[in-house]
Amino acid sequence: MLPSGSTDSFGMIKGHYRAVAATSERDVEAAQALRAVCFGVPARFDADVFDRHKQHILIRDLRTGRLVSCFRLEVLTGSMLEQSYAAQFYDLAKLSRYNEPMMELGRFCVRPGVNDPDVVRIAWAALTQYVEAHGIKLLLGCTSFAGTDADRYGDVFALLHDRYQGPPAWRPDAKAPEVMRFRPRALGPSALKLAMQGMPPLLRTYLMMGGWVSDHAVVDRQLKTLHVFTGLSIDAIPEARKRLLRGLV
User: Fold this and answer.
1) Residue 222: its pLDDT value, please?
2) Confidence (pTM)
3) Which residues have CB under 8 Å from 70's CB, separation 6+?
4) pLDDT digits 0-9 by tens, 8-56
5) Is 81's pLDDT higher than 90?
6) What is the DSSP code (8-state) at residue 199?
7) What is the three-class DSSP state of 106?
């Protein structure tokens, strides 16, 4: 079943790649198959109950027709947050009082071995088009770290604790059965640099644009990841970055 917001009017091309909105079950299944590869799911498809409510964006290589990236979106209001993917893991009661349109971004992935920066650029261009079309004021989602070994990311989590925790008025409380609370840690210049480099690229991009995170990470045994709640106020994005993103559309 396709989400009610599906449309065949969306599409853009950058370099060798084309981003389109899913318009068929076959499109959605292609995204689910790619997600299974990217997230190491021991099944042909990575599918869940949230897929039917989401708009799926697919990025294909025009030279081969191969799907190289995908993600899914949903426009939300505060009263709808409990039906979001993130609400499974985070207590979003505070954020439910946010009275502007929000958009949940999830399952963002790029096929292993595909390193062309134009793939990520067209993904952000597509996201920008959706944000502006729907008057979105806050992007939200769960940003994943590979593996479930929290010690591996000690310096990264210390950096998030010290510099990037979200505002208390909106920051989620713990809800998942297994969480890792962030702790402060003194980091020298070289450790700070390595900590930033150790972040997932998507999270690093969020933070460079003014994003923020929860005060803890969730251990997701099913997907064999750690993830943090991530928020990005559209108004917080520097104007120079906004101009750059608009220029990609």
Assistant:
1) 87
2) 0.90
3) 30, 31, 34, 35, 56, 57, 58, 59, 107, 108, 109
4) 456 789 889 999 999 999 999 999 999 999 998 999 999 999 999 999 9
5) yes
6) S
7) strand
Residues 6+ apart with CB under 8 A from 206: 139, 143, 230, 232
Q: For 96-119, what is each residue's pLDDT tens digit?
A: 999 999 999 999 999 999 999 999
Instruction: State the DSSP string of 128-191.
Output: HHHHHHTT--EEEEEEEEESS-GGGGHHHHHHHHHH-BPPTTTPPEE-SSSEEE-------HHH
Encoded tokens for 112: 């292993």
Selection from 33, 27, 26 nearest residue 10 by Cα: 27
CA distance 132 to 237: 13
Cα three-residue angle 234-28-2, rounded to 5 degrees: 80
Mean pLDDT score across all residues of the chain:
92
> What type of residue is 212?
W
Two structure tokens written together for 201: 């690229």
**Nearest-5° Cα angle at 68, 119 to 106:** 80
Euclidean distance between CA atoms 139 and 238, whole angstroms: 15
